[in-house]
Amino acid sequence: MHTPVTIIGAGLGGLTLARVLHVHGIPATVYEAEPSPTARMQGGMLDIHDYNGQLALAAAELTDEFRGLILEGRQAMRILDRDGTVLLDRPDDGTGGRPEVQRGALRQILLDALPDGTVRWGRKVDGVRALGAGRHEVTFADGATLDTGLLVGADGAWSRVRPVLSTATPEYTGTSYVETYLFDADTRHPAAAQAVGGGSLLAPAPGKGIHAHRESGDTLHAYVSLSRPQTWFAAIDFADPTAAIAAIAREFDGWAPELTALITDADTAPVLRPHYTLPPGHRWHRVPGVTLIGDAAHLSAPNGEGANLSMLDAAELGMALAAHPGDTETALTEYERAMFTRAAEIATDTAELYETLSGPGTPHTLVAAFAGNE
């Protein structure tokens, strides 16, 4: 007999887990702090990889629905120098294993595939405490509590579940993104649109960079990367969009105008996204009745793998629970062993990626790395 599963967090990981459990007839309830599925924008583009994210969607029996979301041509990629010189221009020939979809659309197919009432909205968790014998008490912001025999933290970087397993807390990586959007770019921002092309743009330099995706339609989503201390960003008044944009743009004086337009011509206020990480190789000793998936378990700087890993964690945990009915500890041990190994390998790869992306030799080291992988 399967133990009902309590999942904290209705992101891609928590929803994938709920769906895989549903496929195997295992009851689950997801508790989410946001008041509704449309309470906030669900981020930008995701490339879903054939070696992790797509495997998770197959386990969730949602491959056909996923294929219906793919934005054709978005695997194209360009690397530009700061003066606008194109150093690498890779078209989307349809053979890549990382098709792009909108995060919000992907989340919606997961929600649509769950029974009504699976997700309980507006249920913000304040804390978790162990009750003994593998049971835990979850306390919500409104003072209500629940007692569960199998708890999964899918609640991201600042997980409320993690403290019952680990004393680790996220630390600032030294780098932040500033996000902007340009709408109707082909007609209103043609120079920036031409620079980005049909897929993604990378214009890196040591300690900084301007990157962008073409999302659905002709929306450009830019990510301006700066390696600066948090005190530097704190001195910028992001409540004043004009002043904030001017401060960020000054860091790119002398860059090609079609690149800096992704900052200065923004149609939205700039949004600061500091990057945090858990210690590389983060792990914990087995605690009965509880585990973590995704960023709650192995938060790292953005590396193109985060959403994919969260979904794969979820799928593997769901399948392990299905394979060991009545023996959740064996299932959790099996899941954690594989997850810890995978997360440690990705942490090493992430450190190498950032050296290539923002180290002293970029953008030429980045171009060489892509050429070596072809």
TrEMBL record:
Predominant subcellular localization, coarse grouping: cytoplasm
Record bears the keyword NADP: yes
Catalyzed chemical reaction(s): a tetracycline + NADPH + O2 + H(+) = an 11a-hydroxytetracycline + NADP(+) + H2O
Cellular component terms (Gene Ontology): cytoplasm
Organism: Nocardia terpenica
Subunit structure: Monomer.
InterPro entries, per the entry: FAD-bd (IPR002938), FAD/NAD-bd_sf (IPR036188), TetX_monooxygenase (IPR043683)
GO molecular function: FAD binding; monooxygenase activity
UniProt protein name: Flavin-dependent monooxygenase
Phylogenetic placement of the source organism: Bacteria, Bacillati, Actinomycetota, Actinomycetes, Mycobacteriales
Domain FAD-binding, chain residue ranges per copy: 139-338
One GO process term, biological-process aspect: response to antibiotic
Function as written in the Swiss-Prot or TrEMBL entry: An FAD-requiring monooxygenase active on some tetracycline antibiotic derivatives, which leads to their inactivation. Hydroxylates carbon 11a of tetracycline and some analogs.
Entry binding sites for NADPH: R40
